[in-house]
Amino acid sequence: MTIRLEETTDWPAIYAIYAAAFGQSAEADLVRNMESDRELILSLVAYAEEPAGHIAYSHLVLHETPPIKACVLAPLAVAHPFQNKGIGTTLVQHSLDRLRADGYDLVTVLGDPRYYGRFGFDPKLAEKLETPYDGPYLQALALSDKGNDARGPVSYARAFAELN
Ligand SMILES: CC(C)(COP(=O)(O)OP(=O)(O)OC[C@H]1O[C@@H](n2cnc3c(N)ncnc32)[C@H](O)[C@@H]1OP(=O)(O)O)[C@@H](O)C(=O)NCCC(=O)NCCS
């Protein structure tokens, strides 16, 4: 299995992965809308003869602490036959390494803390932010010391407003 940047020809398979994982097209639509808005900062595919999983990140604007470079992890899915084989973990770890190397200070995610906690995502760090998703499922991970100082209101990529 290799992890690489998404290519145009991957899209039908990625769409199918999200549709099967979530039973709807909203997550796949989110990826495409963020891309057309130029708000997608990283889109990676786990490839095992076919796309087996996908992860995406978009810009997050921190209004009170703008020098902190922040992004949002969403969405993430692994195709059903490939689940529980470490592919999701590899996608998250690989992408976090890339973001750290690209100078990102903070990542937020909305999801199950039992999954994201293993990567260091913490609901406590996210409590200092004011987002449309505040609550126990909102978590944050500092990729640098600076990331721990993030606070206040944030703006997600426009396409998130179309979810639900
Ligand atoms: C969640 C998901 C991305 C994990 O990817 P994966 O490749 O199957 O997971 P990994 O093999 O890396 O990790 C497996 C571990 O994650 C746990 N896990 C899997 N899905 C989980 C979930 N939704 N919530 C909490 N824990 C979960 C497994 O129980 C397993 O735990 P263990 O290591 O203690 O045994 C994948 O199962 C998936 O696409 N699910 C459907 C879509 C989804 O729920 N996406 C949002 C994620 S919050």
TrEMBL record:
EC number: 2.3.1.-
Residues spanning the membrane: none
Presence of the UniProt keyword Transferase in the record: yes
Leading EC class: transferase
A GO MF label: acyltransferase activity, transferring groups other than amino-acyl groups
Keyword terms: Acyltransferase, Transferase
Domain N-acetyltransferase residue range list: 1-148
Gene3D superfamilies cross-referenced by the UniProt entry: 3.40.630.30
Glycoprotein as UniProt keyword: no
CDD domains: NAT_SF
Name of the protein in question: Putative acetyltransferase
Species: Microvirga flocculans
Lineage, opening ranks: Bacteria, Pseudomonadati, Pseudomonadota, Alphaproteobacteria, Hyphomicrobiales
